[in-house]
Amino acid sequence: xxxxxxxxxxxxxxxxxAPALAVxxxxxxxxxxxxxxxVLAMGLMLADALMAAPPRRLxxxxxxxxxxxxxxxxxxxxxxxFGRGGPREVELAVGVNDRLAAVPDRQVVRTFEGxxxxxxRLDPVRRGEGRIEGVWARWTGxxxxxxxxxxxxxxxxxxxxxxxxxxxxxxxxxxxxxxPLGAKPLLDRGEGSDFHALKEFQTGMDLGDIDWKQSxxxxxxxxxxxxxxxxxxxxxxxxxxxxxSAPAAGLPRIDRAINAALLLAFVSLRMGxxxxxxxxxxxxxxxxxxxxxxAAFPLxxxxxxxxxxxxxxxxxxxxxxxxxGRLDRRAVVVVFTDFADATSAELMxxxxxxxxxxxxxxFVVFRDEELEGLVGREPTAPEDVARAVIAERLLKQxxxxxxxxxxxxxxxxxxxxxxxxxxxxxxxxxVKRRGLV
Length: 437
Prior knowledge:
CATH architecture of the largest domain: 3-Layer(aba) Sandwich
Distance between the termini: 67 Å
Shape: elongated
CATH topology of the largest domain: Rossmann fold
Low-confidence stretches: 180-192
Number of domains: 4
Oligomer: single chain
CATH superfamily of the largest domain: von Willebrand factor, type A domain
CATH class of the largest domain: Alpha Beta
């Protein structure tokens, strides 16, 4: 229990300080009477503390989720129960570490029958281990002169993981039979290069798919139906360097990349491919084996949750060379990265080109919405014109880098942050249908 004066008590002491000092100066022999005000104030504070609800009656608890997906706030319920004889209102506060944000972190709640409840929104800021550092409750006595405070020690950690709930929602929409037009790219029959079955020829089928021998045997046109190939190797290469920690639509780019990577992994596993994860900045940080089957998705989720933020510059030579050394057959390598200008991207282009000699590369870049906003904004001052010119130059440099990679044979996925995951899945499926692997 902690006991300390309120502002009212400090004001009460201050009001009596001036008269007490005057009495002590004008009548030194009455100095003992000058201290009477202080004694009276202290007595009132003591009486207020004795009349207040005792802290031993308080039961303080916080019901918080154990797992939170990045970018998906959750609500925690804070409860203060005095049993009987509680105060009219109580002030509640929650302390969290730098991985979480509590909104509001402090609030005053009225009690009903000695019980006060309040909701606190927990906003995940960064992946990792969030901690509830403590929960505090304080209240005053009937006179409002003293604060009584009690603290609940830190609770269990809160794991802040990639937003798997959003990934599964997107995946279910993609696989749904009634998905809206443009959001259902997951038909794996009718195209591709793996023979699936024979069916009666229908209008719209390719004439080259007619099986003439079977047509002659059955006396009608029979066509061959294909499906996309399976058992491909898909490597998700995550650049975790300094630039990937910059925000994109409210979340760090690396978190956007992980969400898109998990959605692609979910789709790939369901379509029979094998998926692995590789993360690097100044050196390789994570390298997993290839997993197969839908049951492997939780493993990939845990691996992606281990990918931490970094302030180091990305070493593409070391990272992509190490990645190439782990691949023993042609694979689809999905590179999630970002670059600031054409000069810094030169080494990246060289190493990606070296990787494309053997493998198919899906190159994922974030559309720089901030630069596009500066270019499209109507200038109101000379400084705005200068910013627009510089932003346009940087955008042209980025377009030059992606155009060069496209000429080298890379499949470029360039989309806004919110639509990156869907654009990536569509590109992956297009690659499979065209038989580019």
